[in-house]
Design brief:
Elements: H1 5-8, E1 11-17, E2 23-25, E3 40-46, H2 52-58, H3 63-70, E4 77-81, E5 84-91, E6 104-110, E7 114-119, H4 126-137, H5 144-175, H6 182-213, H7 222-288, H8 303-324
Parallel strand pairs: 3-7
Antiparallel strand pairs: 1-2, 1-3, 4-5, 5-6, 6-7
Helix pairs in contact: 2-3, 4-5, 5-6, 5-7, 6-7, 7-8
Length: 328
Amino acid sequence: MNHSATALSPFLWHYQLDGDGGGAETTVPRCFQRPEEAGFDWWHLESNNADTAEWLRSMDIDIKVIDALTADETRPRSVRLAGGTLVVLRGVNTNPGSDPEDMVSIRIWFTGHLVITTRKSGRKLLSVQDMRAAIDKGSGPCTTGDFISLLIERLADRISHVVDDIEQRLEDFEEHLNNLQISTVRMSLLNTRRQTAVIRRYLSPQREAIGLLIQKNDIFSEQDVHFLHLQNDRMTRYIENLDLARERALVLQGELQNQLAEQQNQRMYVLSVVAAIFLPLSFLTGVFGMNVAGLPGTDSPHAFVLLTLFMTTIAVLLIGYMWWKKWL
């Protein structure tokens, strides 16, 4: 097959691994099944490239696999098909200007001597870049089962950083809750709850996918199976931590609402006290401010001073009474 530049356009890279942890990046060969050789081939493609599906069809990939590798929207899952295994996973988004909870999909088709991974253009995963760097250094995977195990570990490592960051933010909120502005904390808690919900949405099916992946799959060695069990336990722990983080965020939000209600009650109490003091004074000023005949003191030069002293006395008595009743 003559691969022109257009035909190669869906490829991000291709590696031929030697089975000892190393490998070389090469141009795409005609055939990628190498059952007689040690090692395996790894293709990394853009799932939304127009040539990807056509190239996969030309290599006799099952149509169900092609649909999964090129789908616009995916959900973490694992399924065994004739000739290989399909795995769809998610990793945190580390692209500039992106939110970590906007998790990037990585779709994987693997057999004993073949790994094909796809992702959308512009949505890189550092976990995949880590795999490439490890191969270049000679410390990469030796088998396709080893490849899947290491990739899942690197995805879990990145997820761990995000979960730890969520927990640290909640600890900071709990420690400095009384010293922070309520409006700022409320918005931060809202973002934290949203981030927690979105990440957990993908981690739960991802844990199930890893669990199904290691059931009756002869591609994985005993060591790979043990390693995948450990990663599955990590996913379970992250889900539990996210559930706890969600509960902690709800408790903090409830505490913020209590603080806000208390502040409002204090303000209303102050207004009530002020109103209680000035209500009789306003009544007196209203009565003596009427323009009707017969008001006492209208002809006395001392009437204003006497009225002022009387009103001041009433105010002092009211304040004293409130103080005695411990209302102030």
